[in-house]
From TrEMBL:
<feature type="compositionally biased region" description="Polar residues">
    <location>
        <begin position="138"/>
        <end position="151"/>
    </location>
</feature>
<keyword id="KW-0235">DNA replication</keyword>
<dbReference type="InterPro" id="IPR010921">
    <property type="entry name" value="Trp_repressor/repl_initiator"/>
</dbReference>
<dbReference type="GO" id="GO:0003688">
    <property type="term" value="F:DNA replication origin binding"/>
</dbReference>
<feature type="domain" description="AAA+ ATPase">
    <location>
        <begin position="285"/>
        <end position="422"/>
    </location>
</feature>
<dbReference type="InterPro" id="IPR020591">
    <property type="entry name" value="Chromosome_initiator_DnaA-like"/>
</dbReference>
<dbReference type="GO" id="GO:0006275">
    <property type="term" value="P:regulation of DNA replication"/>
</dbReference>
<feature type="domain" description="Chromosomal replication initiator DnaA C-terminal">
    <location>
        <begin position="497"/>
        <end position="566"/>
    </location>
</feature>
<dbReference type="InterPro" id="IPR027417">
    <property type="entry name" value="P-loop_NTPase"/>
</dbReference>
<keyword id="KW-0963">Cytoplasm</keyword>
<feature type="compositionally biased region" description="Polar residues">
    <location>
        <begin position="245"/>
        <end position="258"/>
    </location>
</feature>
<dbReference type="Pfam" id="PF00308">
    <property type="entry name" value="Bac_DnaA"/>
</dbReference>
<feature type="region of interest" description="Disordered">
    <location>
        <begin position="109"/>
        <end position="258"/>
    </location>
</feature>
<dbReference type="GO" id="GO:0008289">
    <property type="term" value="F:lipid binding"/>
</dbReference>
<protein>
    <recommendedName>
        <fullName>Chromosomal replication initiator protein DnaA</fullName>
    </recommendedName>
</protein>
<keyword id="KW-0067">ATP-binding</keyword>
<dbReference type="InterPro" id="IPR003593">
    <property type="entry name" value="AAA+_ATPase"/>
</dbReference>
Amino acid sequence: MMEDCAPGMSTPQGCTDDSDVIATFKEALKQRVGQERFQIWFSGVRFALEAAESAVSSPESPTAPRSIVAIAAGQFAADRLSNHYLSAMRGAAASACGTSTSIRIHVEDRPTRQAELPFPDEGGSAEGTAAEVRPSGDVNQTGTGVNQTGSGEPARRVAGQAAGRTRPAAAKRSGRHHHRGAQSLQSILRDGTDSRKPVRPKPGSVAPSLGKSTLGTSPLAIDAAHNQPPRQSAAEHRAAKPSVPDSTGNGSPQRNECTWETFVGGQCNELARTACKMAIENPGSASPLVLWGPPGSGKTHLLNAVAGKLRSLHRMRRVVSLSAEDFTNDFIKALNGNCLPAFRSRFRDADALLIDDIQFFVEKKATIRELHHTIEMLAEVGKPLVFAGTKAPNEINGLGGELSGRLASGLVCQVEGLDAQTRQQLLARYAEDRCLIPWPQQTLQEIASVAGGDGRLLSGIVNLVALLQRMYGQMPTMDQIRQHGAHLLRSSGVPITLSSIERAVEKVFQLDSKSLQSGSQTKSITEPRMLAMYLAREMTSSAFSEIGGHFGGRSHSTAILANQRVRQWLDAGRSVGRGQAALSADEAIRRIESMLKTG
């Protein structure tokens, strides 16, 4: 039997021809099922070519019947191939090898994986419940050394007997038990079928060599194999080892700082903050909750603050909080590793699901479909769902109609760029935490007035000032801050011009470029044009004549009339534009201002 890239299997004569047949078969199969499906469902499948039993006696016959064997990594993958792709494989085999070729699906044999719980079985201690298999000969553990017989046959040794002879007296008196490859029950329940579990060899098989890997072996067993005293107990090893964040990212120091108490509230985020407070007090209400706004407006902080409150107030143990990129990467790993049931168990059995940067899902059709089914299943049982992104779900092109509609069915709240008052409060918070010398109130106000609405940029400015304090030994002046941080202050202030207002209005009302400068008199263009003239007068120092000349060479009286007309729309609450792009005057101005602040 000839396999394509199957390590550890012998190949008969004629290997090259068989390889060509397998390659031709795979190419034909790829044409039948498509490139995307082939990559998902056949990347982990190996193919082998073998002669049928009736043709063993005469293999030289060119028309002898043969079989193509699809070797799947697990039963799930094998069932999937049998139920959905058997006919496609038969057709590809017929085109590659002739109609006498048959298809057979085989499940690859793998060592049995069994997780060991961190407590002993009934009727025995943890040391006396496991037996170890040594890879190179019979191993007799004595007080003087290790004796290998060299027979090449593995021998069983009761771990309790060896541990009783090698365990220090202090460990015996403490009564603590060490268990090889033990995992916490919480991690097992969280991850489902975890691929990191230690592999227990079958009876009669040979365990991996200690020189290659010691994964899943206790420090006591490794030290005994090398005739050395134990370095430290398992409990001491875990205590000395630095803590590693779990798969949800909750152990990150940066995320731990994002609490509800440290969030700086203001008018710019009052709506989103109220919605998150409602989600904390009554989980599952108005679910899914979607927060959207420009970068640096506090969406990720709110997301992690909600996750922390759900854990502390409602005792939710399985709160999954991660980014869209992490969700996508985990999904791809589950597909390639045939671990899709464990992946779905992790997310669909969660108490709450929070995902950041949903715009990352754009054009990822398989991931979008999986996420949509996960959201539907969690929403059916009333689990809280919170998402965050840079745009509203219905404005993210490539997210899919079903998913964007499901996200919009809950509660969608905008988080605006930080206003001047919120920027000043955030600067004061950062300065108090990071700087040795207090900031003058005038410096806080001046920097807050020129900085943009990105909170991360404010963090960078405070770090620079803290460095300047160390360098000068006192609070630097504004001239010194500008001298060393001109790049930060210059990038923070987005200049507002007549052209930038024109582009923002055209984008909000979905108009073609330069349409506001055209001579069109349709209401779908004239009303946005009047709104652009109003904003140009309010947000720039341009005269009416300059504004009218920029928007199609119109007179100053036209710009004055447009300014008066928009004020009437605002007082009456009238909408602007036509069709799907129609918005109320207040909402249109708010969106345009937010777009201008973030560039």
